[in-house]
Every structure is written in structure tokens, then in C-alpha cells.
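Second attempt. The first submission of histidine kinase had a stray character pasted in from the spreadsheet, which I only caught after the job came back as garbage. Lesson logged: always re-copy from the clean sequence file. Corrected sequence (362 aa) follows.
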Amino acid sequence: MGFSAVARVTTEKWVACATHDQINFGLVPGGELVLETTICNEIREHQNAVVIDHVAESEKFAHHHTPLMYGFQSYISVPITLKSGEFFGTLCAIDPSPHKVDTPQTIGMFTMFADLIAFHLDALDQVNKSEKRLQEELVIAQLREQFIAILGHDLRNPLNAISNSSQLLARLDQEERVQRLVDVIKNSSFRMNGLIENMLDFASGRLGGGITITRTPDEDLEKVLTQVIEEMKVVYPNRAIKTTFNFDYPVNADGKRVAQLLSNLLGNALSYSANGSVVEISAGSNEAEFNLCVANSGKQIPDATIERLFQPFSRGEVEPNKQGLGLGLYIASEIANAHGGTLNVSSNSEKTCFTLSIPTER
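This time the job returned cleanly.
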């Protein structure tokens, strides 16, 4: 046979995967034929071999459009069926001269080669799937190791503070020192609670397909945000927080999640700004969207750090006594995404601002 090919045949295309051309048919690997002009398209439908010794003497194919178009007299094509039962394509051959191909030996040989091709394609598919699974497992293993290492370090600090403070409380009577230790316990407990919430949300987001939200029409976000700010003032009693609220339109959102987002952003702002500085919070809504901005003075965040700031376990340049799992901004970003919104950051030498924007209605 002067021309043979392994063809990928779908409902839309006929594409040559491999060819052997001794008659200058002109088709190379990657080349295409119009699907409807091929007998392979008919084989895709009935999935039976088609064998023709001499087109001119065949009652069925003497006037068939395919041999008339491509000028062949002998033809053989057998389906290539994958292990899953999916039809892949055909192993086919043509020649402008008649040949005796309708024999058990020839058909058996083509069928055997079609089975070998299918076996090879299945093997390649299994290798690709195995490599993909391996890569996924490597990523999970790296995340697990990183998670456990940071978790062990960061939870140990507040736990030690609580343990030491409680032991000292048992020995002391001085009211001022007792109050100082109570503040340590309170702050450490607050940090641990935040770490645990972030851990649970991270696990839920990675294993459950994303953070879930429950929207409430006309959520009273001003009340929600005010409550978070008041709680943070208890933890940071000596810090100044300036608020500007302007809600002109109801917001369809998950108030608890927005509160969690603000808690993460505000905690970062208070932690990474100087004691005497003011953290500014502005929030408002209009007919199109709800916006929340948390701004603080402090060091400018480098561009390289900003690029990975919303990735899990990314903490930028960690300073002493400012440890964290590096999940807060990641989870805040996931909360924004769950609302169909965005969380962006801008930073310069004077101010760093995190801005949440979500549609008012969705």
C-alpha cells in the first residue's frame, strides 16, 4: 500500500498522527483532512473495519465520494479502540492500484497493529496520570511539611506565654504585675484563636474546593466592622484606630467572613506599624460595590514580596515577635474571591493599604 497513516478521528477532525507516504499523497504528521470526506468518519460511527480490494468493482464504494476525491482503488482501515472503550481513530492505508487486502492475514495484521497502538496510547496516558499524581503529591507533601514546621513554631510561642504567665500569677499578689500577665494571656489566647481559625479555613479551602460563604441580604456591615474594631482595641489598648464609614447601599455578603477578613487585615496593620501611628479604616457601599480599606504607616512592602503576599505560608520579611502562619492574607483573599470580589494591596514609603472590593449584589 502506497500510503498509510495512524489517524486521530473525532466528531470534528481527522488528524494524521503518523504517516508512511510512498506515492506522494502529501499528508504529513499533523496534517488534516476534511472529516466528512473520509471513510474513517463512517468507521467512527459504526467502529468496524472497512476493507476494499478494488474500488471500481465494489458495489458499495464504486461511486463513493471518498475514493473519487482521493483517487485510490484499494483501501483498508481498522478502528483503534482504547482500553476504556473510547474510539481513538484508525489505522488506515490506501493505494491508487487495486491490491488483495481483504484476507484474514492482512486484516489480522492491521488489527494487531491497531491493538498495539491502543496499548501504547493507554500506557502513555497512564504515565501522564502517574506523573500528574506524583507532582500533586509532592506539592501536598511540601505544603504539609511547611505547614507543620510553621505551626509547631508559631503555636509554641503563645502557649509558652500562657503557661509561664499562669505559673507567675499563682505566685504574685501585686495588682499591676498581675494585670500585665493577664494581658499577656489575653493577647496570646487571641493569637492562638486566630491561628486555629486560619488553619481550619486553609484546610477547608484546599481540601473542600474553596472557602464557603453564606450571604445575608442587606448585611449590617457597619455593625460587623465596628464589633471587630472594638475587639481589636481590647487586644491593642494603646493603639489608635481611625474609622470612616459611608454605607449608602445594602450589601449582600457573609458578615462573619467579612469580619474575619477585617480581623486578619487589621491585625497585620497593628502588628506591622509603629506604636504611635494611626491605623485608618474606611468602608462604604454604593449601588455597584462595597469597599473596605485598611491602611497603616510602616515599611514599604517590596514588589517581590507583594507578588507572593496572598499565597499560603508567605509572610514577607518576618520581624521578631511578629510570627504567624502566613495564612491570614491568603484566607482574606479567598474570602474576597468567594464573594466574587478582589483584595489588592498598594504600598509605598508612607503607607500600605489593603483594599477589598466586592459587588453589592450577587
